[in-house]
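Q: Could you fold this chain for me?
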Amino acid sequence: MLWFWILLRIVLSPILYVVWRPRNAGVRNVPKRGPALLVSNHLSFADHFFGPLPVMRRIFFIGKADYFTGAGVKGLLSKAFFTAVGVVPVDRTGGSAAEAALDTGLRILREGKLLGIYPEGTRAPDNRLYRGKTGVARLALKSRVPVVPMAMINTFELMPPGSRAPKVGVRPGVRFGKPLDFSRYYGQEDDREVLRKITDEIMQAIRALSGQEYVDRYAAEVKAELEGRTPRPSDDDD
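A: Sure. Below is the predicted structure, expressed as structure tokens.
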């Protein structure tokens, strides 16, 4: 599907720049070659478009296998779209979702690619930044690649939850920060306190870029409460 990604960039990029005039910053912090882990807040479906937009390299994201298993024409279109925007399905048949995501992420990075990850684990229910899950720290320590914080700007206002199309008149963007160095923690990927410390440092780096209010709770729990569901106890290693 590389050809589809190239086609999307050729066709879609000029439209996004002309219609929404995104404000981007810090793109030079993304390595031009070799593997790197890009860690971002997640505000909107529009993040899939405006996050990778200024980066000339393809960014891969880990996603649910459900995106790729639909039936009929709709299923084929869904699979083609998510493949084109760099979403790689997680194989959950060999164990927990957390381990499957870790294995998939490590494979992508070993191939010298850019891997994007949303530490909050889901789209935020509002325009705030939520507690990160420690899977991102395990991935950073096991892969030993540069960790680049990135912050989506104005994408929540651009395309709030439930919206079918982005609004015109809102200028979105993405900011990339300088790579974070966690080499002092190498070899400690099984230490839960270290994992939490690294994760919190990553989230604060994202907050500094985005200017968001930080909430020390998991976004999935807050979303469940807003929807009137009983929150499921969070697994901190998800």
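A (continued): Helices lie at 2-20, 47-50, 72-84, 97-110, 135-143, 155-158, 192-210, 219-226.
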